[in-house]
Amino acid sequence: MVCWPLKLKNPFHFLSFEVNLHSHIKCIYTTMKNFCIFLILLFAVLSSTYSQKIQCINQSEIPDSLGNSAKVYEINDSVSYYYQNPKRFSYIKHSMQDLYLAPKTMFQKKSILPIAAITASTLILIAYDEPIIEAAQQFGRYIHLSPDNNAKNLSPIKGLDFYVPTDLSSGLYYIGDGITELAVNGSFYVFGLIKKDSRALQTASQLSEGMIATGIYVQVLKHLSGRITARKNNNKDLWRWFPSLKEYHSSVPSYDAFPSGHLAIAMMTTTVIAMNYPEKKYIKPLCYSLMALCGYQMLNNGVHWAGDYPLAIAMGYTIGKIAVNRGRMRVINQAPTSDLNVSYPKPEYKLKPAYLGYGATGLKFTATF
Question: Which residues contact 14 (CB under 8 A, 6 or more apart)?
């Protein structure tokens, strides 16, 4: 349990705290001792995949007639992407590949800064989670935003629930719910089928891939970390590492706060759509604003802490970028350049016996570049 000797003054000055310095330092040390090693290793696995290579195809390699199975989309005067229709259920295989792609670039130098940033932001937010959530809920009461999730179950089948929002508070919460992302995914798929649009079909496939991979990662981490939701424990932070499956499923809210599945799925969805449609400049501002509203409401209704967010956002971005870079190819009109991260053929080295003349033998070494 993490306890902080901090006291909020009012809803509009929630960054002003009364701090006991000695207790504050002691709490920081305890928090870092418990979580730092775990988070650093975790972020190294999940955050370094931003270096996933861009696939490229030369203009001369694209057939003159593509039919309905592929299409080139011109983003601007200098950037075009080649999309092929995804194979049926290929997103299942690709989602499994995403699970082991993450460690592949784990030890690259360029991973150090993002790992450090995510680690630091997570530790800082965990340290201040209790006063942050109190401030968020005070502000919610001030603006009369309900902390309750007033969703309604429309399913007539017992045990198969289908909840839909009924007011503003539940609507904000459902921005990151899987049902919302499934509806977005289905819209791209139906549009792609009707319009024979390869990009829309690939986007739908990538979203399916990302939802599976992100969902698996999130559930594994929730089962490992065992962090209680704020509402379940009267806004007091508590971690119970490695709970048994029986304990976890006997009371899911007692263990499933870290990380946020809502924001992980929302970020993955935003990344996939924004990268596939870069000419639509409104996508990122709109989606990031919706994510911010969802993130706030989850603090307001006590289902998440602010410290649950950085890792979730990093996971969503990472997996979304992997899916997009696999599902399209950048069209180039000349030999690939290093700025596109395109792999070149590796040099070949041969070592074999050779006759050196005058009755002498030795080894012949050949290098081909």
Answer: 8, 131, 132, 134, 135, 138, 139
Which residues are CB-neighbours of 320 under 8 A, at least 6 positions away?
Answer: 206, 210, 267, 268, 269, 270, 271, 272, 275
* Tokens matching residue 254: 């007692």
Please give the biggest Cα pair distance in the chain: 98
Give the DSSP H/E element, type plus range, for residue 327: helix 309-327
User: Where are the extended beta strands (E) located within 151-233?
Assistant: 152-153, 163-164
Are 292 and 17 in contact by the 8 Å Cβ rule? The answer is no
Instruction: Classify residue 348: in a domain, yes or no.
Output: yes
- 292-321: string of b/e by CB count within 10 Å (b at 16+)? ebbbbbbbbbbbbbbbbbbbbbbbbbbbbb
CA-nearest of 174, 163, 120 to 301 is: 174
- Using the Cα atoms of residue 116, residue 122, residue 126 and residue 130 in order, give the sign of their dihedral: positive
Provide the pLDDT for residue 129. Answer: 95
Report yes or no on 12 lying in a domain: no
From CA 269, how far away is CA 321, in angstroms rounded?
Answer: 10
Give pTM, 2 decimals: 0.75
Find out whether the peptide bond into 259 is cis, omega within 30 degrees of 0.
Answer: yes
Indicate the number of domains in the chain.
Answer: 1
Q: How many residues does the chain have?
A: 369
List Cα–Cα distances, 306 to 168, 295, 298, in angstroms: 21, 8, 9
Is there a domain that residue 1 lies in? no
pLDDT at 338 over 50: no
Alpha carbons within 13 A on the beta-carbon side of 296: 18
Q: Which of 14-23, 173-182, 274-283, 347-356 has the lowest mean pLDDT?
A: 14-23
pLDDT in tens, 48-87: 444 457 788 888 788 777 777 889 999 988 899 999 999 9
Token pair of 68, please? 């309905």
Question: Which structural domain, as residue segments, surrounds residue 353?
Answer: 21-368
Spatial distance between the Cα atoms of 243 and 173, rounded to a whole number of angstroms: 27
> How far apart, in Å, are the Cα atoms of 136 and each of 128, 231, 301?
12, 13, 9
Instruction: Note whether residue 277 is domain-resident.
Output: yes
Phi, psi of 353 (to 5 degrees): -60, 150
For residue 275, the model assigns a pLDDT of 95
